[in-house]
Specification:
This protein is α+β, with helices and mostly antiparallel strands. The chain has 5 helices and 6 strands. It has a single domain, classed as Glutaredoxin. The two termini are 25 Å apart.
């Protein structure tokens, strides 16, 4: 099976995010939205990133797929995230998570025939996928699990 390191995505500022550059670091992939009840998790994600950025990369994928809770443009999303939560972890350009046109990264994350580990379904904003240092899927957590849940903290720093 291929790892997530095979992917490149468009960053929120039009730059390219190459997942291969994250080899050797654990990774958390999160679908994010600015107008969701879980939006305050941006703060916890940023705290994790600041504390563990030597061994953890967090990548936020803005999407409007759930409740139309990310209606903004890439520029508006970036402005909101930096002004409200001082987000400095990588954000991608706004994407589709599910259905026709789902982004290839999310097709890979949610399909066992592609990731080799599990099938999953993104239920809402702020779902968390954890990947090991080699880019292989380890775990999935739903929106209700905090980014600073003890299980996640234990996984980051065993």
């Amino acid at each position: 099976m291929d790892s997530i390191h095979k992917f490149k995505v468009e960053g929120i500022e039009g730059n390219e995010i190459d997942f291969a550059t994250f080899k050797g670091k654990k990774m958390m992939v999160v679908n994010v939205a600015s107008e969701c009840g879980y939006t305050p998790q941006y703060q916890q994600l940023q705290e994790l990133y600041e504390e563990f950025n030597d061994k953890l990369v967090i990548i936020g994928f803005p999407s409007n797929d759930f409740g139309d809770q990310e209606p903004g443009t890439n520029e508006e999303i970036k402005s909101f995230c930096t002004s409200r939560y001082q987000v400095s972890f990588p954000l991608t350009a706004k994407i589709k998570i599910r259905g026709e046109g789902a982004h290839p990264v999310y097709r890979w994350l949610t399909r066992k025939d592609q990731n080799g580990i599990m099938d999953s379904k993104v239920q809402w904003n702020f779902n968390k996928y954890l990947l090991d240092k080699d880019g292989y899927l380890i775990r999935y957590y739903p929106s209700s699990v905090s980014p600073i849940d003890q299980e996640i903290l234990d996984w980051i720093s065993p």
